[in-house]
């Protein structure tokens, strides 16, 4: 009975504040529908930089010093003297 004797504006303000405290955490923690993530690779080839992972080719083979280069390194080092040799013989 005591609640009914209070002013209606006081009840509305108190109710709105309580509702705000209940809804605020849900609104602040809600994730957006569109999540943008950076790709772990580059869409293309960087001339002269065979170390950049490319999205255009398949998975890279494990690098072994003195072993064969992968397809991304061959394309990135095209027409650059010494680039492929440096990639094959020196660890990065």
Considering the chains and any ligands shown, give keywords for the structure.
single chain, 92 residues, mainly alpha, rod-shaped
Q: Could you walk me through the main structural features you see in this protein, from its secondary elements to its overall organization?
A:
This is Intersectin-EH binding protein Ibp1. It comes from Mycolicibacterium gadium. Keywords: Signal. With 92 residues, the chain is mainly alpha-helical. Helices cover 42% and strands 0% of the residues. It contains four helices and no strands. The longest helix has 22 residues. It is rod-shaped and about 90 Å long. The protein starts with a helix and ends with a helix. The model has no long low-confidence stretch (mean pLDDT 80).
In short:
With 92 residues, the protein is mainly alpha-helical.
Please bin the fraction of helical residues.
Answer: 40-55%
Spatial shape: rod-shaped
Number of strands: 0
Uncertain regions spanning at least 5 consecutive residues: none
β-strand percent reads under 5%
Rg to the nearest angstrom? 30 Å
Distance between the termini: 78 Å
SS-based structural class?
mainly alpha
Q: Sheet bearing the most strands, described?
A: none
**Could you report the average pLDDT, rounded to the nearest whole number?**
80
Number of helices: 4
Order of helices and strands: HHHH
Protein name: Intersectin-EH binding protein Ibp1
Keywords: Signal
Topology of helices and strands:
Blueprint: H1 2-5, H2 8-29, H3 71-76, H4 83-89
């Amino acid at each position: 009975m005591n609640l009914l004797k209070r002013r209606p504006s006081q009840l509305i303000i108190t109710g709105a504040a309580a509702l705000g405290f209940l809804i605020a955490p849900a609104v602040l923690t809600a994730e957006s529908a569109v999540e943008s993530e950076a790709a772990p690779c580059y869409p293309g080839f960087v001339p002269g930089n065979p170390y950049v992972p490319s999205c255009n080719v398949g998975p890279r083979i494990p690098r072994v010093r003195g072993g064969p280069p992968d397809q991304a390194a061959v394309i990135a080092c095209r027409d650059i003297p010494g680039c492929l040799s440096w990639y094959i013989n020196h660890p990065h």
